[in-house]
Design brief:
The complex is a heterotrimer of chains A (245), B (240) and C (370).
Chain A lengths: L1 H24 L4 H11 L1 H35 L1 H16 L2 H12 L3 H25 L3 H9 L4 H35 L8 H10 L2 H38 L1
Helix pairs in contact in A: 2-10, 3-4, 3-6, 3-8, 4-6, 5-6, 6-8, 7-8, 8-10, 9-10
Chain B lengths: L1 H27 L4 H6 L2 H34 L4 H16 L2 H12 L3 H25 L3 H9 L4 H32 L11 H9 L3 H29 L4
Helix pairs in contact in B: 1-10, 3-4, 3-6, 3-8, 4-6, 5-6, 6-8, 7-8, 8-10, 9-10
Chain C lengths: L1 E8 L9 E8 L4 E5 L6 H8 L7 E6 L2 E2 L5 H6 L1 E4 L11 H5 L1 H5 L4 H14 L4 H4 L9 H13 L5 E5 L7 H18 L2 E6 L2 H7 L2 E6 L2 E6 L1 H6 L4 H7 L1 H5 L1 H4 L2 H8 L5 E2 L4 H10 L4 E5 L5 E6 H5 L17 E2 L4 H11 L3 E5 L5 E6 H11 L1
Parallel strand pairs in C: 3-8, 3-9, 6-7, 7-8, 11-12, 14-15
Antiparallel strand pairs in C: 1-2, 1-4, 4-5, 9-10, 12-13, 15-16
Helix pairs in contact in C: 5-7
The chains are: A mainly alpha (245), B mainly alpha (240), C alpha/beta (370).
The complex binds adenosine-5'-diphosphate and magnesium ion.
């Protein structure tokens, strides 16, 4: 316990010193250097950003296809569902560095490793939300559809999936934001993207580069989050006016 | 009884057993001298110790600050700030962990302490938000009933608000721990040590055995912690 | 016992007062029912009495003591409070819920246990069954019982009850009301009772305070309120304009078999049985007839206390008036107002007892008809 307290104390003292040192270096400081760097290397940054987005969008498409399918399947097989969700939970809990590391012996260094790891990560939010979105529909609605003579196939595509869509989209949103962060780490195993700026910045001690990378990744993540947020809102408004008419 | 033992001791022991078996096998059967030199018990224990140091210090700090802060912000006088905080936290949580560590590196430099501090700040977010949201979510009528029967404000907090918010606070802790264990493996990039060290070393010398050892221990630590807190979570909500 | 003087509450950011210049006095042992449409300030008035809300103006006295000068915590510990939304603590067992106030008062453990068991039995919850349950495992009616038990466990002489039977179905509600009246008969607490339901107000009250837009419109006994409503608002509330005329149209015989409750007792009935029947009765009185089913009179709780003989025939009270079964409901109402009771006995041409009609029955009829 003493040791812990000592450590904690050290940490805060170090933080204090650090903040002091920024204040001192702040005069013609790091911010100006960063802006300078970004304007000089805007082509590189843009390229990495596109690479980052490509990795995320590609994996998102693959992941959503798989996850929604799995989610739908397990919504029909209750006994199966808890096991599948349990496995997805475990996959998501594994630290991203560890997950990427596991992929390296299998797929080598490069883009593929990144894609596979990211897909495995994003399973849980989308599978779980698809499953609960469908399971928690008002049974009366499904009953009514059955009573009107709709086939199970049509009930799935015309009733269940459209009604569960907001919940599924919320899962996709979680997955997308998470992926952007993990894609940055995947740069370390050669998947490319803005993470490269961070890693090479750290290894060279090039601070403007690190900041450009870190801020770039954060902006993409926040932007995605908002995009999905407004998308969800728009969709649901559209849905309700359509019902209203 | 047997079930309880199995859940709380049996399964964790099996997980630890698997990790130990892999470590023991690897250390005793190194395929070449590089692995033999880099994968020793001494080194493995050191990175585990560092890893646990990162986790413990940052989580204990984050729990204390997050819960205390959440309680304070839920008081009527600070409630508006609390709502603003909720939004800020949601944005803050969107920032990837690697970006957080990298930014702290540019501000504070390299080292274990910097990593702990970054993890600490990052883990506060879910705990703070859930504590606030949990207390905020307690139905007003319940609090009014407690006050109407003559409970003092402090008693209302400790006897009513906190116990009712407890499951949500624990859920926040669980999120924080999962994020924290994940981020702790990145500490190595800013000189914070921990299990990430093994993985990074393995990658740089192209030795899968080292990589897998680091990854297995890190993964099992994370799964075990998540498992334990998940089981604890099941027990605390016996009333709903 | 409780006196409100010029009580006023203006909520921050509102220009219209929620409660305005309210003067009200509640005598010891009385049930005063605040009644009025939703949003008229009933809850606000109540919450000022236990100082959950601080009044903007006016005074509150309890036993001539200025409430606004008292320590709010002490004040609240001594006033039983049933909140409108019930507000049971979901994380505590029923036992722990009910034991809240005794625990706040730091009573010894065994005394708490005894009191909780008592009060649970009193409100009709078997302690052995319900003690260790959580509120989520209870029905609406059971929760409201717990809410009432929780408020009265420490024997407060004053209780504030905000729509205590609001959240249950009509049948359960009627049962809870009757049980409550029986309890009140014994406990004789001073109670401020809020409802928006005029039937409930008439049934539960010694006096009724009608509120409208934060102001007191009329404070009177139920029968005075019915016979002499202060204004249009009150008469609408009791339903005269739309419905009272209909009472002229319906004969008592038409509704008698629907409303017939526990039949009368014979004049040779022994004390045991009389007591039992009194307990079962909504009216807290029971009609006495002779061998030929001819009406003799009525026995109330007080008559039984002051009894002068062994059987009911020895101590019944004569009734001042009756109605015949071919009379209209309006006649019945008039007689009730005349004799100042909430019920009237019905006889046929041969003076044979037929049943009893109450104010509540009339209101039910009026409600169904309109
Ligand atoms: N805490 C509060 N803050 C602001 N306005 C309130 C508050 N409580 C009640 N009011 C307002 O005061 C008025 C009376 O409310 P209330 O006493 O709850 O009515 P009732 O119990 O008779 O239905 C309503 O217009 C309501 O909106
Ligand atoms: Mg109210």
């Amino acid at each position: 316990m003493d040791q812990l307290l000592g450590m904690a104390f050290d940490v805060f003292r170090a933080a204090g010193n650090g903040i002091e040192s920024i204040a001192q270096a702040g005069d013609r400081g790091i911010i100006a250097h960063t802006i300078d760097y970004i304007s000089r290397r805007s082509d590189l940054i843009l390229e990495l950003m596109l690479e980052h987005l490509w990795l995320v969008v590609l994996t998102l498409i693959i992941a959503v296809t798989i996850s929604v399918t799995v989610g739908i399947i397990i919504s029909y097989y209750e006994s199966f569902a808890q096991t599948v969700l349990g496995i997805c939970q475990v996959l998501m809990v594994i630290p991203s560095m560890a997950m990427l590391a596991f992929m390296v012996p299998l797929f080598g260094i490069g883009f593929t490793t990144g894609v596979v790891a990211l897909v495995l990560y994003s399973l849980l939010p989308v599978v779980r939300n698809t499953y609960t979105g469908i399971r928690e529909l008002d049974p009366a609605i499904v009953e009514a559809a059955k009573g009107m003579g709709m086939t199970e196939r049509r009930i799935l595509f015309k009733i269940k999936i459209p009604l569960a869509r907001p919940v599924i989209m919320a899962g996709v949103r979680t997955a997308a934001v998470m992926m952007i962060g993990i894609a940055a780490i995947a740069a370390y195993v050669g998947a490319g993207g803005l993470g490269e700026l961070i890693f090479s910045g750290i290894s060279r001690g090039h601070q403007p580069m690190i900041i450009a990378g870190a801020i770039g990744v954060s902006i993409i993540a926040i932007a995605f989050d908002y995009l999905f947020y407004y998308g969800e809102k728009r969709f649901s408004v559209e849905g309700s006016t359509r019902e209203g008419n | 009884m047997l079930r309880t033992l199995w859940v709380w001791i049996g399964i964790p022991l099996i997980m630890i057993g698997i990790a130990s078996a892999i470590v023991i096998y690897s250390v005793n059967n190194p395929p070449d001298t590089i692995v033999a030199r880099m994968l020793t018990y001494e080194r493995i224990f050191r990175v585990i110790r560092e890893h646990m140091g990162l986790l413990l210090v940052s989580m204990i700090g984050a729990t204390i600050v997050g819960v205390a802060g959440g309680i304070m912000l839920s008081r009527p006088s600070l409630y508006r700030i609390g709502r603003v905080m909720e939004t800020l936290v949601n944005i803050g949580q969107t920032v990837p962990s690697l970006a957080v560590l990298a930014l702290f590196y540019t501000i504070l430099g390299l080292g274990f302490r910097v990593a702990v501090f970054a993890l600490f700040l990052y883990s506060i977010l879910p705990i703070l938000r859930n504590t606030f949201a949990g207390i905020d979510g307690v139905e007003h009528s319940i609090i009014e009933a407690a006050r109407g029967m003559g409970m003092r404000p402090l008693r209302v907090l400790t006897k009513i608000e906190l116990p009712i918010a407890f499951p949500i606070i624990v859920a926040g802790l669980r999120t924080a721990i999962v994020i924290n264990v994940g981020a702790a493996t990145l500490a190595t990039f800013i000189g914070g040590g921990g299990l990430g060290d093994l993985i990074v070393t393995g990658l740089s010398v192209h030795r899968d055995m080292i990589i897998v050892n680091g990854a297995v221990i890190a993964a099992i630590t994370a799964i075990l912690l998540d498992y334990l807190i998940g089981k604890a979570e099941e027990r605390v909500v016996r009333w709903s | 016992m409780i006196k409100l003087e010029g009580l006023t509450k203006v909520f921050k950011g509102h220009n219209i007062p929620a409660v305005k210049d309210l003067n009200l006095e509640v005598n010891e042992g009385d049930v005063c029912v605040l009644v009025g449409p939703s949003g008229c300030g009933k809850t606000t008035t109540m919450k000022m009495i236990n100082r959950l809300y601080e009044p903007t103006g006016g005074k509150i006295y309890i036993r001539d003591e200025d409430v606004l000068q008292m320590d709010p915590i002490k004040l609240r510990l001594d006033i039983g409070y049933v909140i409108q939304e019930i507000g049971l603590f979901p994380h505590m067992t029923i036992y722990e819920n009910i034991a809240t106030v005794p625990n706040e008062k730091q009573w010894p453990k065994d005394q708490v246990k005894e009191k909780v068991d008592n009060v649970m039995s009193l409100v009709g919850l078997d302690p052995d069954v319900f003690k260790n349950r959580y509120p989520s495992a209870l029905s609406g009616g059971q929760r409201q019982r717990v809410g009432v038990a929780r408020a009265m466990v420490s024997d407060p002489s004053i209780m504030l009850m905000d729509e205590p039977f609001g959240a249950v179905d009509p049948i359960t509600r009627a049962r809870l009301q009757n049980e409550f009246l029986r309890i009140q008969e014994r406990m004789d607490k001073t109670i401020v009772f809020v409802t928006h339901d005029i039937d409930e107000a008439i049934k539960m009250s010694d006096t009724i305070a009608v509120m409208k837009e934060g102001q007191l419109v009329q404070h009177a006994t139920p029968s005075d309120l019915l016979s002499a409503p202060a204004d249009e608002f009150v008469s609408n509330l009791v339903g005269r304009n739309r419905s009272i005329k209909r009472l002229h149209l319906i004969r008592i015989s038409e509704i008698l078999e629907d409303v017939d409750r526990a039949p009368a007792i014979k004049d040779d009935t022994k004390e045991e049985e009389v007591k039992k029947r009194l307990d079962e009765s909504d009216l807290r009185t029971v009609i006495v007839v002779d061998r030929d089913n001819k009406l003799k009179g009525v026995v109330g709780v007080n008559d039984l206390k002051r009894k002068t003989g062994e059987v009911a025939g020895d101590y019944y009270q004569e009734v001042s008036d009756t109605v015949t079964d071919d009379a209209t409901l309006n006649d019945a109402l008039s007689v009730m107002l005349e004799i100042g009771e909430g019920y009237v006995a019905v006889v046929n041409e041969d003076e044979k007892y037929q049943g009893t009609i109450t104010l509540g029955d009339l209101l039910n009829v009026v409600r169904e008809e309109s």
